[in-house]
Amino acid sequence: MAKQIITSASGRLITHRSVIGWAVFVVCFALVANHHQLRLTVVAAESTPPAHVTVWLNKLSRYVRFRNGKLSCTANMDGQGPPSESTLALWEKQYSPSAWSVRFPTPGEVIDYHVKFVKNESDRNKEQLETTLDVPYGSGDRDKVDIYGENLPADAPLFVYIHGGYWQMLEKETSAYPAKPLVDRGVRVMIVGYELCPDVTLEELVRQLKVAGEFVLNYATENCVKHVSIAGHSAGAHLIASMLDQSFQSAVGEELAILKDVYLISGVYNVQELRYTKSVNKDNLLGIDDGNAKRLSPLFASYDHLRSTGLKFHVYVAQHDSDVFREMSSKMCERLQSFGLSCDLNVLPNLDHFDIVENLALSDYAITSAILEGAGKQQN
Ligand SMILES: N[C@@H](CC(=O)c1ccccc1NC=O)C(=O)O
């Protein structure tokens, strides 16, 4: 009789024999799929594979993915063109955050609510708070920042926010919803605007964000600010993770030491799959190709240069983000940790891709509290 070595998550007994069965299946499938240049997404696994097998799966992750009790096998398609129709259909859903929300009957209503919410909150903050608007940092029409909390001392801690919208929607004017609870506690808030695709390519946008980052750190230095934190939502988290590369560090030099905390919220850290989706990248409006797809994916970037900076990363993702979004966040955090950096991963329950940031308008919210605590302005 086969000996029990581990119990699976579903409570089934996993035996040596089934471990070997899993392994043989996975390896054969990966090899066959790869040989035939197939991109197959198959098998909802009847039970969770045992830990040993999951480790092998991760090692074979170019070919095989394990997500939430589902096994999928993907051939190595590096530079080999678009995926099959069925894989693409899967990706369309994984990269459509509104499809995963449980708050409204349809995805369209989630987006409508979000757009209205962020506009109303931002308009209210513009009326209620002291502001300096449209300070330019670059040459583009949208390359400007809005500053909230101008009544605070010049050297107050500074919080910088980079909005999301898949690099093609939203704007700084409707992205000031995090301002009030922070300004009320003594933190100045800067909302960064940026050019949108397809007016610029994603590659160009990343370059512009580095200019914005330099502007922020110069501003902070000139005003004797001791603490800068920065947060980005979704595509905004991608832009921050992309901005913080070796060339940015070389450009800003010692000023980087003022940047203390980075909050990456429901971020996109791999653009290799979404580049094929119509919902995100119709007619390649982002300008992603085989040559730059990996370079534009922070999940593959080196952060070795940040080792001695003391910069702290905080990765947040929502329970009702898609499997792929949750996986990207945990991998991003692991990636940062692999370079010796401090990173905490926070999966926030009962939230989706949109209320995970809408709640920044609340003073009583986990991310707001973390930002205030980081800035030395703890709530009572
Ligand atoms: N078309 C997307 C919209 C979206 O992803 C989005 C909308 C507003 C703010 C951030 C978003 N996602 C990433 O930047 C969706 O289906 O949810």
In brief, what are we looking at here?
Its EC number is 3.5.1.9. The chain is an alpha/beta fold and 380 residues long. It has a single domain (93-375), classed as Alpha/Beta hydrolase fold, catalytic domain (Rossmann fold), CATH 3.40.50.1820.
Task: Describe the protein's architecture and organization.
With about 375 residues, the protein is of the alpha/beta class. It has one domain (about 95-375): Alpha/Beta hydrolase fold, catalytic domain (Rossmann fold, 3-Layer(aba) Sandwich). It has helices at about 15-35, 50-60, 85-95, 105-130, 180-185, 200-220, 235-245, 245-250, 280, 325-340, 355-360, 365-375; strands at about 5, 15, 65, 70-75, 130-135, 145-150, 160, 190, 230-235, 260-265, 310-320, 340-350. An eight-stranded mixed β-sheet has the order 5-6-8-7-9-10-11-12, with helices on both faces. Strands 1-2 form a two-stranded antiparallel sheet. A two-stranded antiparallel sheet has the order 3-4. α1 runs parallel beside α2 (about 50-60). It is globular and about 65 Å long. The termini are far apart. The site of N'-Formylkynurenine has 13 residues, from α4. Keywords: Hydrolase, Membrane, Transmembrane, Transmembrane helix, Tryptophan catabolism. InterPro entries: AB_hydrolase_3, AB_hydrolase_fold, GDXG_lipolytic_enzyme, KFase_ver/fungi-typ.
